[in-house]
Amino acid sequence: MGFATRAIHAGFDPDPLTGAVMPPIYLSTTYEQTGIGENRGFSYARIANPTRKMLQDCLTDLEEASFGYAFSSGIAAEDAVLRMLRPGDHLLFSHILYGGTYRLISQVYSEIGITSDYVDASDLTAVESAWQPETKMIWLESPTNPLVTITDIAAVSKIAHAKGGLCVVDNTFASPYLQHPLALGADIVTHSATKYIAGHSDVVSGFAATSDPDLAEHIRRVQTIAGGVPSPLDCYLVLRGVMTLPLRMDRHCANALEVANFLDGHPAVAKVNYPGLSNHPGHELAARQMSGQFGAMMSVVMAGGAEAAKKLATSLKLFAFAESLGGVESLVSYPPTMSHSMVAGTPLAMDEGLVRFSIGIEAVEDLIYDLAQVLDGLA
Ligand SMILES: *Cc1c(COP(=O)(O)O)cnc(C)c1O
Questions:
Q1: Which is the closest atom of ligand 1 to the Cα of 97?
Q2: Cβ neighbours, 10 Å, residue 219
Q3: pLDDT tens digits for 34-75?
Q4: Is position 40 annotated as part of the catalytic site?
Q5: 153-198 pLDDT per residue, tens
Q6: Whole-prediction pTM value?
Q7: CATH placement of domain 3-242
Q8: Is the CB of residue 298 less than 8 Å from the CB of residue 357?
Q9: Does the C-beta of 206 come closer than 6 Å to ligand 1?
Q10: 26, 31, 69, 98: which one is catalytic?
Q11: Most CB within 10 Å of its CB: which of 34, 121, 249, 267?
């Protein structure tokens, strides 16, 4: 069945008890057991919850995975995966990645003796030479946040496997509609479902999926034993959001391409980072690896540097100046002091002239008008 059909129907049928067509929100924390050691698949809601199961089954299907687990946040899903590492293990991560992932690795995991290094994962030779005997895992994003660089997921997975390690891909920016890392060879895929999957900036949620039964068992155990599970209401909100993922993504991507083309020609803008533009170094790879569209995240480097960047980020009327991404509404942010403040002063620090956009699904001419109003004054 097509993706759009599965986004609406995978994971649940009309409720057999009532005929409810939309997924019921099961708030009950406990479930009557049918006998000693026997139940209907549910006993206590941290271990399993029917609404969560519907969500997991739907997202697992959309990611073309065999197993998938929902978490209370994207970071909780990442944490469940990273807990596979043991003291003494080494982790490689792509040098451009979500700031919160960097913080989790560099603070929480370094404290328990897991060493890590960053590498430009879009450079395969660099990945090969950065790999150490203790390296157990490489953690990637493609497209990355916020420079939207593209990494060859199949090639990096191959290197990881040849070295006996795992390749994990944070697929948040692409969403399962635009990219299937597991099909490309990755071992585990993670999501901040807070972003495109839920799509309305009203729920924090995470997801991790794999087709490897042993890796799945690890993630399942952390989910139920450590307990970073989403509430039934949150599961419902994500399910409700994901039903329109294909529609929203088509519009997000179409709007983004138009906005990128507009920005690319503007004299106030020194550089546009958007993989849909043919001048982007990852354009051809993205065209091959993604489903023919390039997502709706982009960033620009302003010709006027930090001052112009701050002015642009705070002067737009339609774009809210805010963290996060992937909702129906357009957002603008200033990564050096927002999403990437934790890498300031390190070699991973962002260009001070950088401004990031999450392009929403509004009428694109209104978005371009809003941008032009401010950019024309900065040119
Ligand atoms: C937001 C985000 C996360 C973290 O997810 P939360 O739901 O905020 O915990 C991880 N990776 C990327 C790429 C993100 O954008």
A1: 13
A2: 24
A3: 999 999 999 999 999 999 999 999 999 999 999 999 999 999
A4: no
A5: 999 999 999 999 999 999 999 999 999 999 999 999 999 999 999 9
A6: 0.96
A7: 3.40.640.10
A8: yes
A9: yes
A10: 98
A11: 121
